[in-house]
Description:
The protein is mainly α. Helix content is about 70%, strand content about 0%. It is built from 8 helices and no strands.
Amino acid sequence: MPDDLARPADTLTMSLFHAALRRDLERAVILLENPGALSPRRSRRLGRHLLWLTGNLRWHHEGEDHYLWPLLLERDPDGSAVLDAMKAEHDAIDEPLLRLEFHARGLVAGRTGPSEALTALNALIKPLTEHLAHEEGEGMAIASRVLSHREWKEFEQRAWIDGFTAAQSVRFLAWMADGVEWQEPVRRRAGLPAPLYWTVVKPLSLIARVPGPSVWAGTPAARIKSRMAPA
Ligand SMILES: [Fe+2]
Ligand SMILES: [Fe+2]
């Protein structure tokens, strides 16, 4: 849009991604804490979903490390302490992430039990959620100060979108819409035309309850919403 050059970066998509991540981590804890809800089939499926999730988290972090932090540092050298912390927090997450990936593969292969996977998941959740909150606060404050919205969209395109196939993009967007309560201001910021919202986005926000497409369907985890920190 022409006014994207004139307005500051709106980092809504970052908030949506982080909220979807927190939502699924919370849902996975619920399943792993209730082995009764975890048939062998669902356990394998949960493992596959966690591997998809951790792959997307790595893609997300590497895109930030390679494209975003250097760009923000160039525009705002005084932000170096915050930007260095962003990269350091990503690095610190690597070890618990590796452990979770190991146990997610174990769930798929049937060699990891729910309690081992839960321990690995809980070890990741604390440093990851602290990082997400820090980034949404201080990291995105710098982005909104020094980038136009057009530059933000160009960063997203280069870092994250260009590498996806069409099928991967559809799966990713459906995942991100899951459990979102689309209040009017969020809908407006997302620029969602009403027909697209009512026919596609709104139904997708209920997908967790649908058996078949959702690993969470029929369990208490399906009730967990995607909650964004207030803008
Ligand atoms: Fe992020
Ligand atoms: Fe990050």
